[in-house]
Design a protein that fits this description.
heterodimer, A: 177 residues, alpha+beta, 6 helices, 10 strands, 20% helix, B: 765 residues, alpha/beta, seven-stranded mixed sheet, six-stranded mixed sheet, 15% strand, globular
């Protein structure tokens, strides 16, 4: 089993519902976020292009944050989800520095926090909060090892990309373009 | 848009002590170090099979949550939802109801963040009464009894001295309907809401004159099945009209062509196959030219036009000369683009929607522009066809018994009598009738304002304030200390939608459905629901018969029973669907159909307009363009905010706390503006913005316009998060052009210059 998220940039309107849903679902303190919207504009008026996408931890196979964690608080669990054990985290910030996606922040309580793919919801058979709330249904989530899964099929049939491929992290958030 | 930049500074500051090397360098090293190794994480021995869950996860897993049915009140879309509370009665989250056609289980960011309306610590907490201490006006806290007694005495005084009609109600949303009942029982029909003359009124007139039906809310657009969606200045996706945004997304999946006409590269424009970057204020020329192409190239829907429309020959003659070349000179849209897009629409017809838009009070000829949009739909045959407009249906909610309303001597209709096609109260006419004037036949002496922040809603702010200063009595009902509350004699704290019962929501959709709102928690502070406020005032002024219940719950229960359900059932399901009774959603091939127009046909030529001396077919009129050094002030919606009411919401201000001024790079170069530079705006009437705004240099905006999100620039210090953040577009809209058909105020004819020096340097705010 390998969890992956696929985000259709052709449908995302950048409304930030994923951000609020994550904040209320995961008690993210005000002023912090585990996911966010990136807006990339290119070209010049009137030949303009705009990419909107919802960004978060990429749950990399080759996760620099896990490698550099001195205490083992950052770790990977079944399904390839990268998690942080708050109790084991000493807040050194090395993982924050190492992440090419800028996906981690230091929680006011001291530990480092980030997207968990809503691990607690997956255990109950629910989708991550961001995916379940998205009004444009531009976010897909599932098992990439299963050829019948929506995510597998989307990546098989649609043009897509990952972020910062040069970092060699083998990320598991994919963007349809 | 939430961007990582908003947050970065917080943890960058916290991280300073840990930083040993620059970020970019560190990534490079880690990439090199890991790049050539084995591919799975397991190979690194990083895999833990028995993870300890982190604190947040643990907390969430252990928590048992309870849910209550509600429908959202953050905007007017009214999505049905579940409010989740924990065992300590804390509202944890709000999730859309899967059975609701307005949201299909998915709320927008404002709905999801609706919990912030409840938790906002700046809320109004207790009734307040204006008083004078040592010569200074201030508010003192009062009991509900004292405040309501005072209000009741004013109701009596106004009635005795001037008649009940002189007491006006300005309202919005669910609280408004409870107070409307009070006012009608009292004998006043002097009622208006900015949602009409400052927003969607013109399109109801334009479509009403053409099809005989209002567009209404939600718009009956079959976007999910359309082949071609045409948006004229309508920024779906930024306005987050939930089910429409969802359907636009479905349409993208289905390969529909989207055509967007907008001077700004909106989010919708970025999803469009064709974006027509039109010169502002020239839309009618484009619409006429599209009709010209459809008719001259014989592309219009002939069967449909022949069967269902009237006045085609007049229209054909009218648009004869409006060639794409003619329109190019006006709109700056290239003739081949106009032709190409017209042909795409025709190829998709009748599965095509030229969207009526929502906020359409732009240039003063808005009813006529809306009519041109309606007529274009008529030529394409989209009204009543799959992928176009469906025939909507709703359930009418049985009226809870009460005595008949008395008949007022005059009301909103008389105030707007010079606008023959006005079908609701015109806010600006209420203001006019409130400002003392010898010619005023119907002077207004008192106002109640409920759920609408008139200061940030109405144009010509100084007129609003002049009217406020003229009234004998002003009572404001709101959940938040909005600017309007600061002008009130009495302020009443309403509880939020999460803390009260409200009327049953009857949805106008493909199939009829109802939704209920049940309190998820008890009202916080000393706040009360509007139905209770209305009832308490009613009882005090001898109108108890109109409020014959102890609790509004009884009213809903009675109505639900009449509809064949019960409050118990509705608490469990939240939304209930009913079968259609009005016939099929769409016209059948060759079906006879009578439209609700005088002729029973779709009217290309409007005798109604001709009779009143207006153009029976829309004409293009040139509107002023910005003079040298000025830019057209355009404004719109941010997807995470509604009007000015959510800017202080802790969850939503977290997403976007201030607006920015969109400026084209060419303009920035000429003016020497830098990214995020603080500037002030000054309009054509020398009105200077109270606060500053940061510059956003972007290719998404034309060089003749600037753009900002509406609703920001609050000047009430009691709104601790919203105060002083960004600029209010409303305060710079001092010029309006009034729609002669229905009294709508065109708001997009204001021009601003950009000031780089603080104009308030020497004055204290």
């Amino acid at each position: 089993m390998r969890y992956a998220m696929v985000i259709d940039t052709l449908k995302c309107v950048g409304c930030s519902d994923c951000v609020v849903a994550c904040q209320t679902e995961n008690n993210v303190p005000h002023g912090y976020c585990r996911d966010w919207i990136t807006e990339a504009v290119s070209g010049s008026y009137p030949s303009v292009e705009l990419e909107l996408r919802s960004d978060r931890c990429n749950h990399c196979d080759n996760a620099p944050c896990v490698r550099c964690c001195p205490t083992g608080a950052s770790h990977i669990v079944e399904g390839g989800i990268v998690l942080v054990t708050g109790d084991e985290c000493i807040g050194c910030g090395a993982c924050i520095e190492s992440c090419p996606y800028d996906a981690r922040y230091q929680h006011p309580d001291g530990y480092v926090d980030k997207c968990t793919f809503c691990h607690h919801r997956l255990e109950k058979g629910q989708l991550p909060a961001c995916v379940s709330v998205c009004p444009t249904k531009c976010m897909y989530f599932g098992d990439l090892d299963n050829p019948n899964s929506e995510v597998f099929q989307l990546l098989k049939n649609r043009k897509h990309k990952t972020l910062a491929p040069e970092a060699g992290t083998k990320p598991h958030v994919f963007y349809l373009i | 848009m939430i961007s990582k930049d908003n947050y970065k500074y917080i943890y960058i500051r916290k991280l300073m002590k840990y930083m040993v090397t620059s970020r970019r360098k560190f990534i490079k090293i880690s990439a090199l170090g890991l790049g050539g190794l084995a591919t799975t994480s397991a190979a690194f021995g990083l895999f833990k099979t028995n993870p300890l869950l982190d604190a947040a996860i643990k907390e969430n897993v252990s928590k048992k949550l309870y849910r209550s049915a509600t429908y959202c009140e953050v905007c007017f879309w009214k999505c049905a939802a579940w409010a989740y509370t924990d065992e300590n009665n804390n509202i944890k989250k709000i999730i859309g109801n899967d059975d609701d056609p307005h949201c299909n289980g998915r709320l927008c960011p404002r709905g999801t963040g609706g919990v912030g309306m409840y938790s906002d610590e700046d809320r109004l907490k207790t009734p307040l009464i204006r008083t004078t201490v040592n010569g200074e006006q201030t508010y003192r806290e009062a009991s509900w009894d004292e405040a309501l007694d005072l209000i009741a005495s004013k109701f009596k005084d106004i009635k005795e001295e001037y008649g009940p009609e002189s007491f006006a109600l300005l309202k919005h949303g669910s609280p408004g309907s409870h107070l409307e009942h009070l006012f009608k029982a009292y004998g006043s029909d002097t009622i208006a809401e900015p949602a009409y003359a400052q927003c969607r009124g013109p399109r109801e007139t334009g479509f009403g004159l053409t099809f005989g039906s209002w567009v209404g809310s939600p718009e009956p657009t079959d976007i999910r099945d359309t082949k071609c969606l045409v948006l004229i200045g309508s920024h779906l996706g930024e306005n987050m009209h939930n089910s429409q945004v969802q359907e636009m997304s479905d349409a993208i999946d289905n390969g529909a062509t989207i055509i967007t006409v907008d001077p700004r590269f909106s989010t919708a424009a970025s999803k469009s196959k064709h974006w027509l970057p039109i010169k502002p204020a020239t839309d009618i020329a484009l619409l006429l030219s599209w009709m010209h192409v459809l008719i001259e190239e014989d592309l219009y829907n002939k069967k449909y036009v022949e069967k269902y429309t009237k006045g085609f020959n007049e229209l054909k003659a009218h648009v004869k000369t409006f060639t794409p070349e003619w329109a190019y000179g006006i709109t700056t849209i290239k003739p081949e683009e106009i032709r190409k897009t017209a042909r795409i629409m025709a190829a998709a017809a009748p599965s095509v929607i030229v969207h009526p838009g929502r906020h359409v009070t732009w240039y003063g000829d808005d009813s006529q522009r809306s009519r041109a949009i309606a007529m274009l739909n008529g030529l394409l045959g989209s009204w009543g066809n799959r992928g176009g407009f469906y025939f909507k249906e709703k359930i009418s909610i049985p009226k809870y018994p009460h005595p008949d309303y008395p008949k007022p001597k005059w009301g909103w209709h008389d105030l707007g009598e010079q606008y023959p096609f006005a079908e609701m109260g015109i806010t600006s006419e209420i203001i006019k009738a409130t400002i003392p004037n010898e010619d005023n036949k119907h002077p207004i002496k008192a106002w109640m304002v409920a759920g609408t922040n008139l200061i940030n809603t109405l144009p010509q702010r100084e007129k609003t304030i002049e009217a406020i200063n003229a009234v004998d009595f002003l009572v404001v009902i709101d959940t938040m200390p909005m600017e309007i509350t600061g002008y009130a004699d009495v302020v009443l704290p309403e509880c939020t939608y999460l803390e009260r019962y409200d009327g049953i929501r009857s949805a106008t959709n493909r199939t009829p459905s109802i939704a209920v709102r049940v309190p998820a928690v008890k009202p916080k502070y000393d706040s009360k629901p509007a139905w209770w406020i209305s009832q308490q005032i009613g009882k005090r002024i001898g109108l108890g018969d109109y409020f014959n219940y102890n609790d509004f719950e009884e009213v809903i229960e009675w109505q639900l029973n009449k509809l064949g359900t019960s409050l118990d059932e509705m608490k469990k399901i939240g939304v209930k669907h009913f079968d259609r009774k009005s016939g099929p959603l769409f016209l059948k091939e060759g079906q006879d159909y009578e439209f609700y127009t005088p002729s029973g046909k779709i009217e290309f030529y409007s005798q109604q307009l001709a009779n009143k001396g207006f153009a029976p077919i829309p004409v293009y009129t040139a509107h002023p363009q910005p003079p040298q050094g000025f830019y057209r002030l355009n404004y719109g919606r941010s997807p995470m905010h509604t009007f000015s009411r959510t800017i202080n919401n802790p969850n939503l201000s977290d997403l976007k706390s201030e607006n920015m001024l969109w400026v084209n790079p060419k303009v920035a170069r000429i003016l020497g503006l830098k990214k995020h530079q603080e500037v002030w705006l000054k309009n054509q009437d020398d009105i200077v913005s109270t606060f500053s705004i940061k510059v956003r240099i972007t290719e998404r905006i034309r060089w003749d316009s600037v753009y900002l999100y509406h609703g920001f620039g609050h000047n009430n210090k009691k709104l601790s998060r919203a105060f002083g953040k960004g600029i209010s577009d409303t305060e710079l809209i001092s010029k309006t052009v009034v729609d002669p058909l229905m009294g709508g105020t065109g708001l997009r004819g204001n021009f601003v210059s950009i000031l780089t020096e603080n104009p308030h340097k020497n004055s204290e705010l």
